[in-house]
UniProtKB/TrEMBL annotation:
Name of protein: N-acetylglucosaminyltransferase
Transmembrane portions of the chain: 24-49, 323-352, 358-379, 391-408
Organism of derivation: Ligilactobacillus pabuli
Domain of life: Bacteria
A UniProt-annotated Pfam family: Glyco_tranf_2_3
Gene Ontology molecular function: any one: glycosyltransferase activity
């Protein structure tokens, strides 16, 4: 009897199998993909409105007596880029006597120590400190390095820059000025741009992704929910809040997202100031990009699972949207895209027939149009980015780059599960510099 029921549900169609139950899964996948796409469209519109409003506002100004700032730069084998980064930090137009620079040379085995020692000789009268760690206390990731630097920092405000950054002269001034105009702001983040965007097709994709992320995910969420996520570089945060939080979580690979969630729960805000700009180096090869983004996926999954219990509690009200958004991106969207791709391939090969395949393909085309239009809107906020070449790149991104992201997300998920099963400590992947 069960065999008869199964046979009635499955029949040969043009050499394939008509499995009607797959229609339900495909329909659910379509709804999921479009639901997340619509949310992103709403964020894009809100972000663009935020951009228009901020562009009309006067630049924030420092108080008459600006606070002392400790700039911390965690660096592991960064000899290729560290001198250029340090020169940019020394060139800030923030009052020279009101900030210090702390480089945490974290268990490096390249020429970083020698280069930094030479820089201290060149700038003997500047507040420049180099902390050289070894295997006994260093080499355990960015969070550990930042906690080491925090112990020696003297500033009431802490600013973080990655070792590959070349911030504009005004970046620190704008960050601090924005933070000091509201006591409810725990941190202020700036904008980051891709300085090697013309190095390869991959860096061109990343450049567009970066611009889109800032105005879609950051400016849009700030406008609608007063939420921003610390991006890991080019930000300033109050020292007393860091100390109350106990510093950075040494288990977190995405220490920026993790500490953002804890700041939200304290009742403080994180603001976005687009006038504070830094230029950073992005991965130029697929291998480096894949490892870097896998680390990001693992880090964000850790943050999601760490805070998932707060999803429907009063304590988690402040971070509820972000938790749902991250859960949707890393679990629901990933599953839906995989199912949609598999169904598309099997239907083209003739192995599976679904009444929804044609409907799915129509929505797929509409999704591409929505993605292209919304992404192109975001890059119009930057001078020189609104051109036909970038329009073609955006179309290509949906077909190629999104599938690359799917592979990274899947690999990161599998890697995270494997580490939990075998009780392995997650390793910090060092991004290659050029």
């Amino acid at each position: 009897m069960l065999d008869d029921e199964f046979t009635s549900r499955c029949s040969n169609v043009k050499g394939g199998i008509d499995i009607t139950v797959l229609d339900y899964f495909l329909f659910a996948a379509i709804l999921s993909i479009w639901g997340i796409l619509i949310v992103n469209l709403i964020l894009t519109v809100a972000g663009y409105i935020n951009y228009l409003q901020k562009s009309r506002q006067p630049a924030p100004e420092l108080p008459a007596d600006p606070p002392f700032v400790s700039i911390m730069v965690p660096a592991h084998n960064e000899g290729v880029v560290i001198v250029k980064t340090l020169q940019s930090l020394l060139n800030f137009d923030y009052p020279k006597e009101r900030y210090e620079i702390i480089i945490i040379n974290d268990n490096s085995d390249d020429n970083s120590a020698e280069l930094l020692a030479e820089m201290q000789k060149v700038y003997p009268h500047r507040n420049l400190t180099v902390i050289n760690t070894d295997q006994t206390n260093g080499g355990r990731g960015k969070s550990n390095a930042l906690n080491i630097g925090l112990k020696q920092a003297r500033g009431s405000l802490i600013s973080i820059y990655d070792a590959d950054n070349t911030p504009q002269r005004s970046a620190l001034r704008y960050l601090v000025a924005e933070l000091m105009n509201d006591d409810k702001k725990a941190a202020v983040i700036g904008k980051f741009r891709t300085r090697n965007k013309d190095a390869s097709l991959l860096t061109r994709f990343i450049n567009i992704e970066t611009l889109s992320f800032q105005w879609m995910a950051q400016a849009g969420r700030e406008k609608l929910f007063k939420l921003c996520t610390i991006p890991g570089t080019n930000y300033v945060i109050r020292r007393n809040i860091l100390e109350e939080l106990g510093g950075w979580d040494v288990k977190a690979l995405a220490e920026d997202t993790e500490i953002s969630f804890r700041v939200y729960q304290m009742g403080y805000r994180i603001a976005f100031q687009p006038l504070a700009v830094t230029w950073e180096q992005e991965p130029q090869t697929l291998d480096v990009w894949f490892h870097q983004r896998t680390r990001w996926v693992k880090g964000n999954i850790y943050v999601i699972l760490k805070n998932a219990r707060l999803l429907f509690t009063k304590a988690g009200r402040k971070i509820r949207f972000d938790l749902l958004y991250f859960l949707s991106i890393y679990f629901l969207l990933m599953t839906s895209l995989i199912l949609s791709d598999v169904m598309f391939v099997l239907s083209v090969a003739g192995y599976v027939h679904s009444d929804l395949v044609g409907f799915s393909n129509t929505l797929w085309v509409l999704a591409i149009l929505a993605f292209v239009i919304s992404t192109f809107i975001t890059i119009t906020t930057e001078k020189g980015e609104m051109n036909f070449k970038n329009l073609m790149l955006i179309i290509c991104m949906y077909v190629v780059y999104s599938q690359m992201w799917l592979a990274v997300a899947t690999n990161g998920m599998v890697g995270y599960v494997r580490e939990q099963i075998f009780h392995k400590q997650a390793k910090w992947y060092k991004t290659k510099r050029y």
